[in-house]
Design brief:
The protein has about 350 residues and is an alpha/beta fold. The chain is built from 16 helices and 13 strands. The model has no long low-confidence stretch (mean pLDDT about 90).
Length: about 350
């Protein structure tokens, strides 16, 4: 009997690790491989009783029998060291080992979903390298591209994994925008492979799976919802535009940007009305300033949600940087796209060969 082999899906926050984990799990299962799922660290903010959405997604789509507390046994956060850090480290490790033993029983492979970054929880000995070595996993690193520095970061992490003795099965460029697609295939991929870091795939960006919804923006921002129906809250947001310029200079740009979120001050009724005349998914008003009634009337007419927040534009933009699309179990289109991305754009056979070797 072949030994069970696990795959650690690493990457930075927003890289789409969970979508890759989901698509890979479904593809492997289609190939006759039984798959388990494990997320050692749950970075969920807020309520201690909130269950990680990623865990709920994989549990439901893969029909996993384990309780959420087994699938993701340790909760972490930005202030994790405030209480008993020395005692917690050993207990966290034991909890992870115990839960992983249960999850990995009777399956051919376990897909391990990484935390916010490879370095998260390093002070507790629970970073990506430590966990991959503890669980005897091969690394698949998911890359979120912004510019050439993103490749530098990828090379740095790959070298670090190799020096630490963690086998890297390959890298996946995920959610690659149209403008970077050719450069990724023609420049970034050859550079990585020349340095000895294999590339498993280049997945083009698809709004249906990459773009957040208005509801996800609202949940991240809080504030007041001044208009908006359930159906309009499901709209995709493909671009964010800050309406701080004059109407004359803004109009042509607003017309070119489809399915956008427009951020402007509550006192900029002229900008808000202009934005509502173009393809706008949501209007976000900053500074806690209530808009003129004409803005709300126009938003209701156009069925565009309006969110009023009580902090400034800069803080609003910073919060929006944390927003990423989450796939819900009921979103069968997104689930299918996740699997198709692996089938069509990745060397999935290499993963199958590794598991079966």
């Amino acid at each position: 009997m072949l030994a069970m082999k696990s795959l650690y899906i690493g990457g930075m926050a927003g890289s789409g690790k969970t979508a890759v984990a989901l698509g890979l799990a479904l593809k492997l299962r289609e190939e006759g491989i039984t798959v388990g799922y494990f997320k050692p660290l749950d970075p969920t903010k807020g309520s201690q009783h909130k269950i990680d959405d990623d865990v709920l997604l994989l549990k439901e789509v893969l029909s996993l029998p384990h309780d959420e507390s087994i699938l993701s046994p340790v909760r972490t956060g930005p202030y994790k060291l405030s209480c008993c850090p020395n005692q917690e480290q050993s207990s966290h490790m034991e909890n992870i080992k115990r839960a992983y033993q249960e999850v990995s029983a009777n399956v051919d492979t376990v897909i391990i979903d990484g935390s916010l970054s490879p370095y998260t929880a390093a002070s507790l000995g629970l970073d990506a390298i430590s966990l991959a070595k503890m669980l005897n996993s091969a690394m698949i690193y998911v890359i979120r591209l912004e510019d050439d520095y993103s490749l530098d970061k990828t090379v740095f992490y790959n070298e670090h994994f190799r020096l630490a003795g963690v086998p890297v099965l390959g890298n996946i460029f995920n959610n690659v925008g149209r403008t970077l697609l050719d450069k990724t295939k023609g420049i970034y991929t050859p550079i990585l492979e020349k340095l000895g870091h294999p590339v498993l795939g280049v997945i083009p960006q698809k709004a249906e799976i990459a773009a957040p919804t208005v509801r996800e923006y609202y949940e991240a921002l809080g504030g007041e919802l001044l208009s908006g129906e359930d159906s309009s809250m499901a709209r995709l947001v493909e671009e964010v535009v800050v309406g701080s310029m004059t109407i004359e200079s803004a109009l042509s740009y607003l017309r070119r940007a489809p399915n956008k979120a427009v951020i402007t001050g509550g006192d900029r009724s002229d900008m808000a009305i202009t934005a509502l005349e173009t393809s706008t998914s949501v209007l976000i008003l900053t500074g806690g300033l209530y808009p003129d009634v004409s803005v709300i009337s126009k938003a209701i007419e156009k069925k565009v949600p309006v969110i009023l927040v009580h902090y400034d534009t800069f803080t609003t933009i910073e919060r929006l940087h944390e927003v990423s699309r989450r796939i819900h179990p009921s979103d069968t289109t997104a689930v299918q796209i996740a699997q198709d991305n692996i089938s069509q754009h990745c060397k999935w056979q290499a993963v199958v060969d590794y598991i079966q070797s």
